[in-house]
Amino acid sequence: MLALASACKPTMPTLRLEGTDCHYNDTGEGPALVLIHGLGASQADWFTQLPAFERQYRCIAPDLTGHGGSSPDGPYDIFAQARRLFALLDALGVQQAHVLGHSMGGAVAQSMALVAPERVRSLTICNSTAGFRPTTPKKLLEAVSRVALVGTLGVQPLAGLIAYRLFPHADQADLRRTMRAHFAQGSRPVYLCSLFALGRWSIWHRLADITCSTLVIAAEHDYFPLTETQRLVEGIPDAQLQVFPGSRHGTPMDRAEAFNTRVLEFLAAARGPVQAPPLGEAAPA
After folding, report:
1. In which domain, by residue range, is 73 found?
2. What angle in degrees, to the nearest 10, is found between the helix axes of 78-91 and 104-115?
3. How many CA atoms lie within 13 A of 65 on its CB side?
4. 250 Cβ partners below 8 Å, 6+ apart?
5. Residue ranges of the AB hydrolase-1 domain (predicted)?
6. How many domains does the chain have?
7. CA 216: distance to chain centroid?
8. How do 32-36 and 58-62 pair as beta strands?
9. Inside any domain, residue 210
10. Residue 151 is assigned to a structural domain of this protein
11. pLDDT of 254-285, one tens digit each?
């Protein structure tokens, strides 16, 4: 797995958007595909996807506010981050794009499909849900424990815990080390601000407004029960479900080959309208 990270050498510039720096990864050619990472992560988490996707798509993988190389003084609100990603696409001359989001990135991706549906050619939601508000005792306990752990000890202890929960098996040691390193680079204030923003976000009542073709990818042992995922699929008019047995919350990595194959199949069938002409490119800062 780690060899894939070094094999892919994309362009990783920064653009100034509304007074803050947005760091992103831009590689490959073809129709645009936006890849949005999860909470506490960064665009670096797509190292198992980019070598496969960049052969057919222009892969644009941003760092969300405060994550990776992006400034921490941007918006944390989920819908505001969706609008910020459209500003990034505007600056890059991209009118329409397929959008893929993992975990918190799935929330941002769904928000993009609601903010500007005409610009989202397809939507892939992975290991995510339509509302992160702690509405059950289990969700509340998870949220409170994360706030307490990060607030008291910082992100490094949480990095080890998350890496083990994602990849607990002996043959996943390389993935554990990689993810621990990725998460450990995070910031305590950024993680907490992102977590609070995510906890206020819910679009269960708006799922019927997502009109593009949608693929929902779930894991057998994810944080989110399959009953909740099924509710998500049933709420989106043109949605299909793919469940990966044995997988946990890191499906793009622990089922990389099968995940990539399934997503590429979906994208090929959901290409939609011809991409509009570029808006005009802006030089990265």
Report:
1. 2-132+203-269
2. 70
3. 29
4. 127, 166, 167, 175, 179
5. 31-251
6. 1
7. 13
8. parallel
9. yes
10. no
11. 999 999 999 999 999 985 443 444 444 443 33
